[in-house]
Design goal:
Helices cover 33% and strands 18% of the residues. It is of the alpha/beta class. The strands form 5 sheets. A 7-stranded mixed β-sheet has the order 6-7-4-3-2-5-8, with no helix packed on it. It has a 7-stranded parallel β-sheet with strand order 12-15-11-16-17-10-18, sandwiched between helices. Strands 19-24-23-20-22-21 form a 6-stranded parallel β-sheet, with helices on both faces. The structure holds adenosine-5'-diphosphate and magnesium ion.
Length: 716
């Protein structure tokens, strides 16, 4: 994401308009997502090569990648296996030693080099006798007018695409920069530059100009310049994102008024009395924050800077609709909070909607809410892609729109559904509140879509993915945040063990023992087929397929054999909703003791007696997802066991899983996942709200993200 350049800026012109770019080059650049001159100037070097100092060939090692420079003294192509295989090799001499550089099965490499050429090579040795590199990066040194761009400096090395030479791109960027540098403007809401070269520290905006930063990112004079420049450009990205959010928010605040949904406890009191447990302190605190929003009381306590990483405490009491993210680890009791929130709206005479990412979860919510609300005289209605319930399940037409029968009643209702709530083309009249469960499974666009259904209803989005601060600030910068930071009492601990596949017989024996003692078990396999309520659910990282992925259907028989005589059910996304429903009902009623399932049960499923979970091929899941999965167990006082069976060949992959043995802290796990796998994986592929930062780094740039945020709050 780059700051919005003025459309009339010369930088908005296509690269193809530049001298030297024909259709072929333009197509190559397009493959690198370079379309405009601005894109070109923001094409970030992959690394830098200090071509003022070289390693002597005699000093190259096996452990460290380094650049050497020398002359080709011999080269040749050898073919073998009847010509189907080949190796091209040249020998480089720099006066200290010789270096063999080899390329396997790339015979055309031969035509790029000639004896006598001077070449840079970058790589590390695979052998020391003789010194050999396989497939090093190379660049032939040419003198001439433009030689100074490539040698005797810290040279940028760019990501390339087939057919695009490093040297050409570097020269091209240099020339374009010469010509267009003066058009690089400070961004609209940017922090004023101080022109300094010091790294920007939080709160002290000591920054080069944007134009300088762009030059420095390509052609730094010192190593440190590149990082100074990166930080400046990253700050611009964060500011661009946050000011867009801030503007959206301001626009929203100007146009909307909070519907009075504070409620009067008429339903809440009997509801809490029949619940069978007391709310935790954290649940109560969060409900206070929600009520303040819902009643239109203006600034809630949570809007102070210390308590939230959502929007700031601002001296405003305009009553705008709630826009709140509720974050709480798996099992922290978000559903009850959602129910209480719904009751506030219902008491106030409004309808409420609850959206969940899968049918199973929607049905579970529906069942719970029906059980809780029906005694209070409140109707719950289910609307999923395939299943409807309610009075008679039929639509009625009114003013050319399809309207559910229950809506014709004067009484307020809660509507529960999947994304079908968005797409079915029906309107919930008098909609006061929208709740989205498992927010991270939905894209920002979908969130907006649902909210636009009504006259600016209040919005509560709930997530169990503990979002690291950096991500929260960037992704949910336009939401207030409440956190449930306390688990209900009386929960057994979940012990987690990582085991290799050869321990499976013992694991099954252990599980049979637990089943005999009355517990139930989930057996989870990663799998390709995740087509439940598509397109919102794409959580499995195992979409790459592969023969070694054990498909649940295939495994079912094995599990049946391993757990006989106990009864085993099967749950996956390809089942019909009715079938899924039957399986879940049987599991809930303990008519089946083991549930073989895909990651489908990851979200929200709540069967307290199931206290054991076996996850096969655990290395195929992200850590945060495994944490979610094991959140299905440990839901009552029994001690629970989660066994992660890893088929991973590498020690590294097993070590990664050990994080789960060591900690139950969702935030630590999410941070680890963010570092290891990046934000896309942590949030699921559907997370459309996340821009592709060229320079910003969500793992390391918390200080910049904060700085951007403070700046935007004060100035936009
Ligand atoms: P999540 O936050 O993961 O959605 P749930 O809402 O499914 O968690 O709650 C997990 C379980 O804890 C449910 O069985 C729920 O009824 C129970 N629960 C929720 N709040 C409390 C509480 N204050 N005391 C005891 N049990 C609770
Ligand atoms: Mg839940």
């Amino acid at each position: 994401m780059s700051p919005p350049e003025n459309k009339t800026s010369p930088l908005a012109a296509p690269v193809a308009s530049l001298w030297g770019v024909g259709t072929e080059r333009a197509a190559q650049l397009a493959r690198l997502d370079i379309h405009t001159i601005e894109d070109l100037l923001l094409h970030r070097p992959r690394r830098y090569e200090d071509r003022r100092h070289f390693k002597k060939i005699s000093e190259l090692t096996k452990d460290e990648s380094a650049t050497a420079r020398g002359t080709i003294v011999a080269q040749g192509l050898k073919r073998f296996r009847g010509g189907s295989k080949s190796v091209f090799e040249f020998v480089l001499d720099d006066g200290t030693a010789r270096l063999h550089c080899r390329w396997w099965n790339l015979p055309f490499m031969e035509k790029y080099f000639a004896v006598g050429d001077e070449v840079f090579v970058f790589g590390k040795l695979v052998e020391t006798k003789p010194r050999t590199m396989d497939h090093p990066e190379t660049e032939v040194i040419e003198g001439g007018e433009e030689g100074f761009i490539h040698i005797n400096r810290i040279a940028p090395v760019y990501p390339l695409t087939e057919g695009l030479p490093q040297r050409w791109l570097r020269g091209f960027i240099w020339r374009t920069l010469e010509k267009f540098e003066r058009h690089i403007a400070e961004p609209a809401f940017g922090v004023p530059p101080s022109g300094g070269r010091e790294p920007a520290k939080a709160g002290t905006p000591n920054l080069p100009t944007r134009a300088n930063a762009v030059r420095m990112i390509h052609f730094p004079e010192e190593r440190a310049d590149a990082e100074i420049a990166r930080r400046r450009l990253a700050l611009d990205e964060f500011i661009a994102l946050q000011s867009a959010m801030q503007l959206r928010r301001k626009n929203f605040e100007a146009r909307s008024r909070a519907l009075p949904c504070g409620g009067d406890n008429r339903l809440m009191k009997p509801f809490l009395a029949q619940l069978g447990f007391k709310l935790t302190g954290a649940q109560t605190k969060v409900l206070r924050e929600i009520r303040a929003d819902m009643s239109g009381a203006g600034v809630s306590p949570a809007r102070s800077e210390s308590a939230t990483h959502g929007r700031d405490a601002r001296a405003t009491t305009t009553a705008t609709p709630m826009r709140r993210l509720l974050q709480g680890d798996v099992g922290s009791g978000k559903t009850v909070v959602a129910a209480c929130t719904a009751l506030m709206a219902l008491e106030s005479g409004f309808n409420a909607a609850l959206m969940a990412p899968t049918e199973i979860l929607a049905e579970q919510h529906f069942r719970n809410l029906q059980k809780w609300f029906e005694p209070l005289g409140v109707k719950a209605e289910l609307q999923t892609g395939s299943g409807k319930s309610g009075e008679d399940g039929r639509w009625k037409m009114e003013d050319g729109k399809r309207v559910r029968p229950a809506i014709l009643h004067s009484q307020s209702s809660i509507f529960v559904g999947t994304h079908a709530l968005l797409t079915s083309g029906f309107d919930i009249p008098n909609l006061g509140l929208v709740i989205i469960d498992e927010q991270h499974k939905f894209g920002v666009a979908q969130r907006e879509q649902l909210v636009r259904k009504g006259n600016y209803p209040h919005l509560l989005v709930m997530t169990a993915t503990p979002i690291p601060r950096t991500l929260g600030l960037t992704l949910y910068g336009d939401l207030d945040v409440s956190v449930i930071d306390e688990m209900p009492a009386g929960r057994g601990r979940v012990k987690t063990f990582v085991r290799t596949a050869d321990k499976l017989p013992k694991v099954w024996e252990f599980i049979r023992g637990k089943l005999a003692a009355g517990r139930q078990v989930y057996v989870i396999y990663p799998r390709v087929e995740e087509q439940d309520t598509a397109p919102v659910l794409r959580s499995s990282p195992a979409t790459e397929g592969g023969n070694d992925i054990k498909a649940v259907t295939k495994e079912l028989e094995n599990v049946r054999r391993a757990l006989a005589p106990f009864r085993v059910g099967l749950l996956h996304g390809r089942l019909k909703s009715r079938e899924k429903d039957e399986v879940m009902t049987a599991f809930r009623a303990n008519q089946i003791q083991a549930l073989v399932a895909t990651a489908l049960v990851e979200v929200g499923v709540d069967v307290p007696n199931a206290s054991i979970m076996l996850i096969e091929n655990a290395e195929r899941f992200g850590l945060a997802q495994l944490h979610q999965l094991r959140g299905r167990i440990g839901r009552d006082a029994h001690e629970s066991q989660c066994i992660l069976v890893s088929g991973a060949k590498t020690e590294e992959a097993r070590q990664r899983l050990k994080v789960l043995e060591d900690t139950a802290d969702g935030f630590r796990i999410a941070e680890a996942d963010l570092k290891l796998r990046g934000p896309g994986e942590l949030l699921g592929r559907q997370q459309s709200g996340l821009p592709n930062f060229r320079f910003g780094n969500l793992v390391d740039d918390l200080d910049l993200i904060r700085q951007a945020r403070e700046w935007v709050m004060r100035n936009v």
